[in-house]
Amino acid sequence: MLQTRDFSHYVKDVDGRIAHLDLAVEGVHCASCMAKIERGLQSIPDVTLARVNLTDRRLAVEWNKGSTLEPGQFIDRLAELGYKAYPYEPVRAEVEEAERTKFLLRCLGVAVFATMNVMMLSVPVWYGGDLSPEARDFFHWLSALVALPCAAYAGQPFFQSAFRALKAKSVNMDVPITIGITLALGMSLVETINHAEHAYFDAAVMLIAFLLAGRFLDQKMRQKTRAVAGNLAALKAETATKFVGPDEISEVPIAAVRAGDIVLLRPGERCAVDGTVIEGRSEIDQSLITGETLYVPAERGTQVYAGTLNISGTLRVRVAAAAEGTLLSEITRLLDHALQARSRYVRLADRASQLYAPVVHATALLTIIGWVLAGASWHDAIVIGIAVLIITCPCALGLAIPAVQTVASGAMFRAGVLLNAGDAIERAASVDTIVFDKTGTLTLPELDVVNAAGIPLEVFDLAGRLALASHHPVAAAVARAAHAKAPLPNVVEEPGRGVRTVFGGQELRLGSPAFCDADAEANQILSEDPEVSVVAFSRGEQRVVFAVRQLLRPDAAKTIDALTNRGIAVELLSGDREPAVRHAAAALGVSAWRASVTPAEKIAHIEALKKQGRIVMMVGDGMNDAPSLAAAHVSMSPISATHLSQATADLVFLGKELAPVLAAVDYSRKAMAVMRENLGLAIGYNVLAVPIAIAGYATPLIAALAMSGSSLLVMLNAMRARRGRRGAAPWK
Amino acid sequence: MEVMVILVPLALGLGLLGLVAFLWSLKSGQYEDLDGAAWRAIADDDPPLPPPANVPAEKRG
């Protein structure tokens, strides 16, 4: 059969002559990777540009359109260099996020320019004992000239947001900011026209600069997370092998598969679509969907779902739904419902600002009224009122939480945890119960040989080399365990049974016990441990049976122990059969476990825990876990999880170990503590500064110093979130 | 004091120049890969030089 690969879906046209392709690349860590990739691709004739973005782990390639180059060639070249890559198409949300970050940075640049220059102009006014009134007016007018246009431009993020909030008849933090800035600038202009001694231009622009710094940090964190998440999605984006003619197949991105198409599903491939088998006979591993580790048979008429793994035979599948539509409607419905139920959570920053805005407005208003009642002129009263508004303006508050989130997300990233949701830290900090799924979460996603110790090395080695020829996941486990590198020659695959070859004058076979005539040995292993899968190997008269199963993550027991020591209750909830779950629970020392649980029952269980007042984190990877991930207060998925679960999870963890779960809890708790401290600092500063402002003693110099001082303090304090609860890594 | 009339606009002009430079660098994408930029500065990007053509092969060492 003729096979081609078609990634033209992703190629963009630059100016009619140059073709452009973005690739997400896995495993780029350092400058040498960057140089290796760029040189490796630039050495291909007709390539005009190859540039790696080390921050986003992406690669942009451009080449002359007239050449015969194809996207697949770049992927092959990268594979030769040792990097896995996949065509990447930025989603709209990510493009918007990047645009917004750029806009904030532009505003920040303008605001910092204005602050520095207006400050420079203000210093002579503050200290100018012998400054003539004309010179003072000159400085004030120059300040106005710089500050007004700059504030009009750089203040846009706040003005727009405040306007939107007011239009929706609500108040957010940007409303007092906008009022403060506008009043300060307007009043300063009036003062300047009236040749008054002081103007507030410096305070207004500095306020904008500090607040923008906070916004920028917040935005940057989210943008980075989204970029990494986008890469992961691209690298996981499975392709499908589609029939483009009766005997011609082409590997295409899932986005190019439509309902009604026929796709080929070979052994060892993960199904990317929902559909019906129209030809072939095989076994299907549904563990990612149901948590059930035993294989189910598939034949003509069987329904297959995206995320399932084809084990032994080649299938032709008529697509019922692809890409967006692959999810079981039941799961989608449960998911929507669960997500709705969760959206009531209010972020700490929003809660703080909801309290803050009315208090600030009321204080300023009462100050003005108070001074007028006390006999001051309207003019003086309003000047003092503005001082109150500026000094209370949530400068430190605006920085307090984003700064901590940025620092903590960096620290968590280094510990192997990615943040998927902006408020994941706040959610994870309060967790007191963690519910784990078993398959793929507590266990490694791949299978491993458990009886390796009892098998002669030479036999193991041969079996491993033979196994390299098979796509079967159980065979792959044997090849991995044997560290096999050199495949044996002339291997013949017998679909549904195994592989065989002649080597060293003897026939070697690897496959089902019947195929290798090893039923007796296999039955003996199965009677000792019914949980394992078996694969047999025969060489002449010699028979060996490998027992294969999913192993627990290497540090699972230690991590669960550490979690329990932190006072967190741990439960195990799995869709797998009872003996398998009991075995895992016993090995991990978890007493609260349930087996054969359906997705709906999982949600019900989590809801019941929530009703008891527990704050639940769900850790799971399967599609059957997605709704319960959404139902829990906070959720976490391993990187090997299905698309849907990862999209639903607040946190995603990398690597073979379970330690990131512990790290997520520890770093979140630490970060939350620092956030609270920062809010305390911001409030404490106001308690000190506001009476001074109300009393009318807040000269612009004092306001400026107080404001920068409090902002620097919260920034420095935020750095402390870099360290977890016990100083370093969770238990290392 | 008169000198201020020259110096202050001059200072503002320099500041403005800095701002324009910043906006230009932002627009030209220089902040898009800060991690990579840090490494590119010290990367050894020249390919190894070919041996000089006029030296006999046995003397190249």
TrEMBL record, chain B:
Membrane-spanning ranges: 6-26
Zinc-finger found in the keyword field: no
Disordered, as annotated region: 42-61
Pfam families xrefs: FixS
Keyword Iron-sulfur belongs to the record: no
UniProt keyword list: Membrane, Transmembrane, Transmembrane helix
Family matches, as PANTHER family: FIXS PROTEIN
NCBIfam families from the UniProt entry: ccoS (TIGR00847)
Protein name as it appears in the record: Cbb3-type cytochrome oxidase assembly protein CcoS
Organism: Rhodopseudomonas palustris (strain ATCC BAA-98 / CGA009)
